[in-house]
């Protein structure tokens, strides 16, 4: 993949470095046997819920002004989500940046500025 | 933040670009009112579950050889997770790459190669 | 509600007892302020993920033969899911048993025996 | 199990009926092969997230006054959670009502009225 997309590789350098670090981490521990896409998707979902737990019972407003401890907790859980996302993308040979760019483009079509402004509706209800 | 960390800014260029695109997307639609950290964490968790749904009922083995349609579905849901993660990091002023690097370092301490090799146990049970 | 549905009340007695116990538990702690349906749905989702975590990294087969410790962990998380489900149903004035019966009837239509036999496909793909 | 606990059986009659209905539903479709505890926990978690999605972007207040359509959506997703919970409990031979009662008793110890009143803190932080 790096050979095929030299330009993207430059701009996504941090992601590539993390991807390689995770590959090595798993290889050194013989963990690829556990890292099926299904299991990685489970792990990602569990970490996303642990992130959500950091905001449980908070009001919207208090979630905008977290304490340093709350930020640290959120940061660690977000790192877990990010790492499993990178690992799963590696296993499925998906380029996360391209996927994200494609989704933003799709969302721009689904949520035209005029119709979506100030609305919290799903595009299917706009 | 960009001024303070010029070096990191270069290596996380793709993430910065996505972060700015999401800021603009929300601003143009007056969506910041909905994008409290709590709500973004909910959205991320919902998308993670939609990603997991793509693997529901599959065996581990079949999750390793997805059809093009299944890959496309997974790719879109992974993009959603990624975008909400970037957006939440922006709102909390968290650097995702640094957070990920810190977590890999912590995991290296929690899961020493010798003890963790071939094991699916949590570090608290190693 | 009890007055209006005496017959159901008898058959769902255990659920009614739990519902009342949870009402009292919250009232004694002045927790109704936190128990918005949104917050209860978050809590339920977080507990469901903690339940899922008990099965993370296990194979399908090993999930069928859990250790006593694993069963105890699953039991506690299932209780949490159940309690939040009952509490949310109470707040939304939804009868869980009727809801479940209705859904089984809908699933019987969506998944006819002949078409669904041995298949792991979603009804929209049958 | 019914023979061993005649008294509980009476009070949990609605749950027993649903459990039997789900057993039959799965047997008629040859679905027990998919219904490993792991897969059922995944399904439950996915449904919990679909329930949460019904409250996504709502304020706490608006989640307290849902429209009939929103109630119907929540009801269906709560039914899904409930059914998978009953099915998983059946597979793990767990009595949901006993599990719930035990957890309420544990919570009463973890959250003493005086210390927990009006607080949204986790028991580990009380």
Oligomerization state: homotetramer
* Parts with pLDDT < 50 across at least 5 consecutive residues of chain A: 1-12
CATH-derived topology of chain A: Helix Hairpins
**Rounded radius of gyration of chain A (Å):** 18 Å
Overall mean pLDDT of chain A stands at 91
Q: Kindly state the number of beta strands of chain A.
A: 0
- Secondary-structure element sequence of chain A? HHHHHHH
The percentage of residues in β strands of chain A lies in under 5%
Outline of this structure?
4 copies of one chain form a homotetramer. Chain A is an all-alpha fold. Helices cover 70% and strands 0% of the residues of chain A.
Characterize the structure shown.
The structure is a homotetramer of 126-residue chains. The first copy, chain A, has 126 residues and is an all-alpha fold. Chain A has one domain: MazG-like (Helix Hairpins), CATH 1.10.287.1080. Helices cover 70% and strands 0% of the residues of chain A. Chain A is built from 7 helices and no strands. The model of chain A is unreliable at 1-12 (pLDDT under 50). Chains A and B meet through helix 2, helix 3, helix 4, helix 5 and helix 6 of A and helix 2, helix 3, helix 4, helix 5 and helix 6 of B.
């Amino acid at each position: 993949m790096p050979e095929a997309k030299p330009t993207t590789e430059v701009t996504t350098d941090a992601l590539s470095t993390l991807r390689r670090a995770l590959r090595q981490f798993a290889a050194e521990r013989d963990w690829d046997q556990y890292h099926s896409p299904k299991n990685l998707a489970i792990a990602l979902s569990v970490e996303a819920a642990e992130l959500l737990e950091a905001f449980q019972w908070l009001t919207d407003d208090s979630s905008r002004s977290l304490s340093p401890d709350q930020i640290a907790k959120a940061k660690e859980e977000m790192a877990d989500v990010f790492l499993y996302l990178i690992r799963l993308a590696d296993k499925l040979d998906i380029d996360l940046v391209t996927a994200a760019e494609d989704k933003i483009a799709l969302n721009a079509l689904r949520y035209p500025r005029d119709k979506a402004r100030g609305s919290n509706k799903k595009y299917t209800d706009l």
